[in-house]
Amino acid sequence: MRPIKWDRGRLSLLDQRALPEAFDYFVCESSSRVYEAIKKMVVRGAPAIGVAAAYGLVLASKEADSKPLADRKQYIIKRAEFLKSARPTAINLSWSLNLLLDLIRTLDAESLTTELEKAALRLDSQDYASNVRMGEMGSTLFEERVQVLTHCNAGSLATTGYGTALGVIRSGCKKALISKVYATETRPWFQGSRLTVTELREDDIEATLITDSAAGFLMARSKIDWVIVGADRVAINGDVANKIGTYALAILAKYHNTKFMVVAPTSTLDISAKNGRDIPIEYREAEEITKLNGEWLARPQASALNPVFDVTPASLVDALVTEKGVILEPTEEKICSLLAK
Ligand code: MRU
User: Fold this and answer.
1) What's the pLDDT tens digit per position in 16-31?
2) Fewer beta carbons below 10 Å: N end or C end of the chain?
């Protein structure tokens, strides 16, 4: 499954809001449309958002072609800031745009679009290669056949392909090291039931769906060896922001002697965040909880709080898998030495 397609100036994003019923592409021919796609969750998942935004900046550069040469860079810089504001937690969004902004500073105005397009294509293929590498390395942590549980969707659909957490699950299944995969449905957007179960099925991997609140019961009754998740931002001390519910799973994992693995490329590490408290958490509309498919689930005036990410302290993480290597029991020192490689 390819959530992001770039074809000579046209960005097509698989509309993840319609899955699994429909496989529709949301076509973007302007940077505003890319902003809308990120904000409204047409494209989601930290690495996928980062790459989509990079293509969004290429579209901004095309928009700038109609402006006087002297104003072009300024226009693109402003569009980058606008794209960054679409969602706050996934650092890959500002990471990829900042890389392109650094590049812009070195370019002359005539070559902006060509060079930005090359850079966006590079980010796209590097993300895929990182996922395959992380999948391979992460699956070496399974010493025997294991049962795993994953949360949200950290798969092909959340990246440029293969996936982070689901990349490890794909590799582990290929090596016959995984005997059972469980997926949480992931309220309120149902990334687990709508996306994870769908994309794993395409690879002949049958994931068994549970409600988010069934995880404790499952761990108590049948042995789950590993919880495997992705990340939206990892602080320099190893605290992990990921989909709401991840923290609860990490606590449950600790209690049940289940190992907890986070799979994320180094583009998800935020060296400016000392710990999880420095990570901005996105809160979305209450109606994502109080309504389902337009129908009220709660009384219309019911008050609801919808934080969509939480922070898992590093002390609950057994392994952090990146494309540069695996860190067991991550600490600031270990993360800094990995980044220095
Ligand atoms: O709100 P979403 O669907 O964008 O949240 C996605 C997640 O939390 C994923 O687990 C995370 O981005 C890792 S994806 C490789």
Assistant:
1) 999 999 999 999 999 9
2) C
User: Hey, which of 17, 38, 40, 243 would you mutate to test ligand 1's pocket, going by the most ligand atoms within 8 Å of its Cβ?
Assistant: 243
Convert the pLDDT of each residue in 77-104 to its tens digit: 999 999 999 999 999 999 999 999 999 9
Structural domains for the chain: 4-130 (1.20.120.420), 133-339 (3.40.50.10470)
DSSP letter assigned to residue 188: T
Catalytic residues, by residue number, are: 232
Ligand 1 mean position, distance from CA 189 (Å): 11
Pocket (CB within 6 angstroms of ligand 1): 44-47, 90, 152, 154, 158-159, 164, 191, 230-232, 242-243, 308
Name the one residue in this structure whose structure tokens are 């049948």. Answer: 222
Q: What is the tens place of the pLDDT at every residue in 113-135?
A: 999 999 999 999 999 999 999 99
d(CA 273, CA 43) in angstroms, rounded, equals 25
Q: Which atom of ligand 1 has the smallest separation from the CA of 152?
A: 10
Categorize the per-residue pLDDT at 222 as very low, low, confident or very high, splitting at 50, 70 and 90: confident
Give the separation between CA 274 and CA 252, rounded to whole angstroms: 25
pTM: 0.97
